[in-house]
Each structure stands twice: as C-alpha cells, then as structure tokens.
Amino acid sequence: MDSTDPPLVLVADPIARSAVDRLRAGPCRVVDASEDPSALDRSIGEAWGLIVRSRTKVTKDLLKQAPNLRFIARAGVGVDNIDVPAATERGIQVANAPSAATASVAELTLTFLLLLARGLYPKIVEARSGTWKRSDLGHELSGKTVGFIGYGRIAREVVRYLGPFGCPTLAYDPFVSSSSDGTRLVPLVEVLAGSDFLSVHAASTPENHHLIDATRLAGMKRGAYLINVARGALVDARALLAALNAGALAGAALDVFEVEPPTDRELLTHSKVLPTPHLGASTHEGQERAGIAVVEETLRALSGKPLQGLVNPTRGIA
Predict the structure, then answer these.
(1) What is the DSSP annotation of 15-28?
(2) Does residue 231 carry a catalytic annotation?
(3) Which of 160, 170, 185, 225 is 20 to 30 A distant from 153 in Cα terms?
(4) Same domain as 115, residue 246
(5) Domain, as residue range, for 264
(6) 3-state SS assignment for residue 126
(7) Does 225 lie in the same domain as 208?
(8) What is the model's pLDDT at position 36?
(9) CA dist 124 → 224, 229, 256 (Å)
(10) pTM of the predicted model, to two decimals?
(11) What is the pLDDT, as a whole number, of residue 205?
C-alpha cells in the first residue's frame, strides 16, 4: 500500500447495495468481501475500516491480522460478535446501528404475541396437513399483561404497537428509571409473576448469561408465554424445555438460540415452541437502514467527526 492511497474499508458481510455504492463515493477504497470470504483474508492486513453484520467474528486473532485497522462498524445492534475490549485496547473505534432494526424486531415481537395468543402456529400446520380441527380455543391478546425484560428502543416500540389492544405493560430494566408510555417499571420478580406474556429484550453480557433460568421460569405466572428476540444465551434452554414439558408455561416463541443453527432439536421441534431462524432484523427496510447507517458512520470516522453509534470508550482512541 502506498502512503498516499486512500484508506481501505473492507465490507465483510452483506449490506444493502445502495450503502456499498454510497461508501464507494466516499474518500476511501472499498473491498466488498461479502460474497467472497477469501477476500477478507487477502485484504484484512491493509484495512483501515471493517464493516460486519453477524457472520464475521471479529476476534483477537482477526485483529492481530489487521495492524492498520482503526474502525469497525456493525450493521445492527448487538456487538457480541466483536471483541470490543480487544479493539478498545488497540485504539480501534467500534460503532453500531442501534435504531436500524427497531421497527423490524418490534413487528416480529407483535407477530409472536398474536400467534401465541391464538395458538395459530400448530393450527396452521394441522390445516395444511388436512386436519380441520376447530375445537381448540385460543385467547385474545386484548387486555393481557405484557412484560418486558429490558426496556430500550425495541420494547418501547412494541408498547406503542400494543396501544390499540389495551394491554397493561410491565418492565424491568436497571438502567431505566421512568417511562412516558404508561408502562410500570417494577422489580424483576414482579414482571415475572405478573405477565401473561414475557418478552426478553436485554443485552447479551456475561452478567446476563441464562438470565432466565429455572428459578426465574418458576417465578413466572403459570400458563404464561415466553418470547425471546434478543439473544439465545439469555434463556437457559434446558430449563425452558423442562418448564414447557411440565405445563408451567403455555408456550414460547424463539427467534434466537444459544447455538445457531441449533444442534439440540428437542426444543426446536417442541410442539409448544414457535421457532424462527434469527430473522428479527431481516426485512428489506431494516437492512437498508442498517447499511446506510454504518456507511454514514464510516464516513464520519474517515473525516474525524464525532460518531453517533460509538459503543466503546473513547479514551486512547485516535
């Protein structure tokens, strides 16, 4: 690389084509390795910037191969596929797109709430197989209490969607002290005991590993439903399976699993589980927003402007 060459930005995972085009128009060179992973290995040593989604794991070993790296952008919210402490130690800025997928994930959560309430998933499967069974009654979502663990952008958007259903809402979030939408912020035990539907939206951290364990599942209202659209490691899968088999919970909707794709199919194929393959943010609109957001963040970083989605401490970062 000549010292006069523009910085190289490496796009490791697929983002919207319009976003890549916008990046190519910026003051940088671009290598799109999203469809050719071998290009990542060829270019990482020269890269100034790296754009990823969830496929590429930015580990210490990868960072060792990137002596010129100064910026990493995650086209999404969670940065658990990036070793943020190692990047920070190297003086590498890490940014994400915190609001890009809010509507997409909130709409999936609402879809899960409606499917679970009416018990529609098994009924759809039965109808398609030729079984015309009308005797099993579902429930109305209207008036049911929906609880949230984690009360950030997505949970608040779900509450907005729930307005016409007249659902009382509870939330536990140690980082939120008030709400402006009528949601009652209460201790975790009250959310567990008082919710007909419990929706998990917490961050995946070492402290939150198996946050929903056997003890907390036992504290849930009998016959309640669990929804997880955040990260699989937040829920102890074996404990959840036991609660479903014992009839303590009526069902669960899981967009995320601790191991993806899941290797333990017992929970995946359970009759009371509605599984989807981690597609909460997988809408055309959400991916367009995420791609554009991280490209704009990359362009800000290239020009030395303050970042809007910086997730790591700035001390020691040039």
Answers:
(1) --HHHHHHHHTSSS
(2) yes
(3) 225
(4) yes
(5) 102-275
(6) helix
(7) yes
(8) 85
(9) 21, 22, 22
(10) 0.87
(11) 87
Q: Are 68 and 48 in contact (CB under 8 A)?
A: yes
201 and 117, same domain (yes or no): yes
Burial classification of residue 161, based on how many CB atoms lie within 10 Å of its CB (0-12 exposed, 13-18 middle, 19 or more buried) = middle
How crowded is residue 131: how many other Cβ atoms within 10 Å of its Cβ? 10
> pLDDT means per 10 residues in the chain (318 residues)?
81 94 95 88 95 93 96 91 94 93 96 96 90 89 97 96 97 93 96 98 92 97 97 96 97 96 91 95 93 96 93 56
CA–CA dist 171, 162 (Å, integer): 14
Predicted pLDDT at 317: 33
87 with 109, same domain?
Answer: no
**Residue 98, preceding bond cis, omega within 30 degrees?**
no
Cβ neighbours of residue 127 closer than 8 Å, sequence gap 6 or more: none
**260 assigned to active site:** yes
Residue recorded with tokens 């909460």: 280
pLDDT at 3: 61
Amino acid at 10: L
**Shared-domain flag, residues 85 and 157:** no
Q: Which of 89, 126, 140, 260 is catalytic?
A: 260
Give the contacts of 281 (CB within 8 A, at least 6 positions apart): 76, 77, 100, 101, 104, 105, 287, 290
Catalytic residue (choose from 22, 210, 278, 300): 278
pLDDT value of residue 316:
36
